[in-house]
Inverse folding.
């Protein structure tokens, strides 16, 4: 299982953002939505082995888990995904059940990272880390990424303390959705060549 | 210079599509917009050496060229980019000048490919091609990609005849924007390691 844990530092957690203004009222919800698309979608459907945890911090913290194989009514475009996130944030606030494969909770960053570490090896994607091509990555991995801003010093400390390994996709500063597409690609390449290593 | 030539088989060329329905009225304009984002944007601005040619075929053919270093008022989210494409399609129809760095013309697929071959080496991204990691790719390259549907047999014939090389990013069928992010990444890696080769 591959898991992407994406931190939306300013992402609206109330569900009252406008779908025609995701960068503004959504608190860069455009980045969050594209990250989901990039993580879960292949050209003709959803990946079977990937999940995304969105740790949204622009308000009362919420973690939105989207489980690829269980998700329904999800399409790869930004607006559709942002709409599904909004619907589920609103339903959670109203005490209603979410849509299939999407689970909202009150977890903050520390709790989400600790929970992810219980069943997977953690990696923190960072320009200064070890080249992903030479890193040993086995099954059940969680890849932690920021949104348009890097992790804060406090978040970095949490990640350090829990023992996440820093890995890098090169020296260019990429968008989160691009970094996720590339991580999926590097892992697909390994699977195709039949190795867990580089 | 890197160039991505993306074919939008059903993409609206009239400019009368709705920004809140890019997949439907736009003819998968969501895919086109995300491809532009993926090609041109780094986390904190535009790439200096990349351009995108959008060959839009859902109506009278139009080719929209977006030149990274010249573009203004462009943001990385799907809606903004689709809005800029729409504005420029409408202005072209009305005989008005486009926005900086965006150029619309009547070129169809054959003309766009021939024009691209005049100043660059052509590559056609295709699952069955040569592994991109082992392909020799030098400066001034054009990478040709379809949208949600592959190139038609007629388009493939044009690409074949002009001598484009087939290269592959692996066996998974990716979204166009994902394939572009990965191609940029593979080329960045080469530049960082100081080689034109794998």
């Amino acid at each position: 299982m591959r898991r992407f844990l994406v931190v939306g530092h300013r992402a609206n957690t109330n569900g009252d953002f406008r779908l025609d203004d995701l960068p503004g009222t959504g608190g860069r919800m455009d980045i969050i939505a594209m990250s989901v698309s990039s993580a879960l979608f292949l050209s003709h459907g959803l990946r079977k082995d990937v999940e995304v945890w969105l740790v949204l911090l622009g308000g009362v913290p919420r973690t939105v888990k989207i489980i690829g194989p269980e998700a329904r009514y999800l399409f790869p475009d930004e607006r559709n995904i942002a709409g599904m996130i909004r619907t589920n944030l609103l339903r959670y606030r109203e005490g209603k059940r979410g849509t299939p494969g999407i689970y909202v909770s009150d977890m903050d960053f520390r709790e989400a990272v600790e929970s992810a570490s219980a069943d997977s090896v953690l990696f923190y994607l960072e320009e200064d880390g070890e080249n992903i091509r030479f890193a040993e990555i086995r099954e059940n991995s969680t890849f932690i990424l920021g949104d348009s801003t890097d992790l804060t010093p406090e978040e970095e400390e949490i990640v350090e303390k829990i023992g996440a390994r820093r890995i890098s996709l090169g020296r260019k500063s990429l968008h989160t959705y691009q970094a996720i597409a590339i991580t999926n690609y590097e892992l697909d390449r390994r699977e195709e060549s039949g190795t867990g290593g580089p």
User: Anything to note?
Assistant: Chain B has one domain: 2-193. The mean pLDDT of chain B is 94. Residues 2-193 of chain B form a domain with the Alpha/beta knot fold (CATH 3.40.1280.10).
